[in-house]
Design goal:
Blueprint lengths: L1 E5 L3 H13 L3 E5 L2 H10 L4 E5 L7 H10 L6 E5 L4 H8 L4 E6 L4 H12 L4
Parallel strand pairs: 1-2, 1-3, 3-4, 4-5
Helix pairs in contact: 2-3
C-alpha cells in the first residue's frame, strides 16, 4: 500500500513511517498540509494519514482543500489537541475513515491501516 503520512513532529513521523515500512508499505512522510497537497498533485496514494494540528496548513484545512479539489483518498486522522466532538463535527463528509486519538499506539495505527487495505472502511 502506498501511504502519505503527514505529521509535524519528526520523532512521531519517523516512528510511524518506520513501522509502516516494516509492514511492507511504501511511505512518504511530510510535515504539513501544504506538502500533502503538493505530493497528491504529483502522484497517487492509497491512503493519507493526517495529523490535524500542524503549522502552515492544518489537517482540517487540508481536508477541506482536498474536497474542493475533488481528491478521493481514504484518510486516517490523528489528533491530541482537539476534543473528540469538535474533530468528529469538522471531519464529517471529508473522506475520513478513522479518527485516532494521540498518542496513537503503533498497533492501533497498523490496525487502522489494515482495515483500509482490506476495504473495511
Amino acid at each position: 500500500m502506498k501511504i502519505l503520512l503527514a505529521d509535524d513532529e519528526p520523532m512521531i513521523r519517523n516512528l510511524y513511517r518506520d513501522m509502516l515500512e516494516g509492514n511492507h508499505h511504501h511511505v512518504q512522510a511530510v510535515s504539513d498540509g501544504t506538502e500533502v497537497l503538493e505530493r497528491l498533485a504529483e502522484e497517487a496514494f492509497d491512503l493519507l494519514i493526517l495529523d490535524l494540528h500542524m503549522p502552515k496548513l492544518d489537517g482540517f484545512k487540508t481536508l477541506l482543500e482536498l474536497k474542493k479539489r475533488n481528491k478521493q483518498i481514504p484518510v486516517i486522522v490523528m489528533s491530541g489537541h482537539y476534543p473528540d466532538d469538535v474533530v468528529n463535527e469538522r471531519i464529517s463528509g471529508l473522506g475520513v475513515v478513522e479518527f485516532l486519538r494521540k498518542p496513537v499506539m503503533i498497533t492501533a495505527l497498523q490496525h487502522a491501516v489494515d482495515r483500509v487495505r482490506n476495504g473495511d472502511k
